[in-house]
Amino acid sequence: MLYDWWQHIEFAYPWLLPLLLIVPYLIYLQLGRRGKQTASFKVSTLQFLHPTYSWKLQLSPIPFILRCLALTSLIIALARPQNKFTAEQTTGEGIDMVLCFDISGSMTSQDFKPDRLEAAKEIATNFVEKRPGDRIGIVIFSSQSFTLCPITTDHNTVLTQIGVIQNGYLTEDGTAIGSGLATSVDRLKDSKAKTKIVILMTDGVDFGGVIPPDIAEKLAKLYGIKVYCIGIGTNQVSDSDPSSVSGNAGKLSFNDDLLKHISSETGGQYFSAANKESLESSYDAIDKLEKSKIETTTFNHYSEAFLPFVLFGLGCIILELLLSLTILRKFP
What percent of the chain has pLDDT over 90? Predict the structure, then answer.
């Protein structure tokens, strides 16, 4: 609780805080004087004397402690602590987009580390974190497609859903590019945003599904949706790769011509990502091409927090005076 409080406190006059060094100096002086403040005289024997320790003697340091606490509190109050509240006002227009993930079996190929799908998820996560003003949704596809997350400004939800994507999420395998794109278009068609885009990531040729890619492409054009296609993979899968099918190693590829055509016809762009670095570069290029017109204005509000320190300091002074004039009173 104290840490959270301190995180939101600022001082109007922080240059007064070094005065707090007076307190440890006073403690040092008090400890040095302690043995010199008691009068003494010599006697021949101590047998007739009884121990003189009492509860008053035990409480004698309290006035000095209260004085140090009062001084500390009043110096902090003089530095004028303030609670800081930050508010952000966002104006402008963001972009509505859908991240469309191919989750077919070939996306577990390990020419990317740890594999194609995990690399795609990692780079997509970084991309989402850099787009605070946009509404983002997620569609996944193999032989069929599914909306994992509708378009939303809640990026924590988007990031959570990206994290749970895995191969086998949809029961039947395949690479239904047309179905994946059509579902993405359906998520965006009613959007009022001026700019709507789909980022489609795949590593295979269109196979399975009920909607051909050319139909999905025409739907995207009809609703003014730009499609950025990213072909993932090296077009080669090693014999030792668990995702490669016996006798088909090295034959896995994605349809460059199809992806280029979809991107070109919808006003987007095609990227070929042969490794994790080029995949990241593809997202960086999209980030630069599709800039949101968002302005964020930050307002800082302050409320005074010195009064509790003043009251505590005055309370310590009053209590010290009461103790010094009553039960801890010293007689010459």
Answer: 43
Q: Rounded CA gap, 121 and 99, in Å?
A: 10
Question: What whole-number distance in Å separates Cα of residue 263 and Cα of residue 255?
Answer: 13
Coil, strand, or helix at residue 29?
helix
Find out if CATH 3.30.1950.10 is the number for domain 95-291.
no
pLDDT of residue 236: 45
Beta strands in 28-182 (DSSP E): 81-93, 96-102, 135-141, 145-152
pLDDT digits (tens, 9 = 90+) for 5-54: 666 788 888 999 999 999 998 888 888 776 555 556 566 555 655 555 56
Domain ranges of the chain: 2-33+52-85+300-325, 95-291
Give the C-alpha separation, 20 to 75, whole Å.
7
The reply to whether the predicted model has a pTM over 0.85 is no
State the Cα–Cα distance between residues 107 and 232, nearest whole angstrom: 9
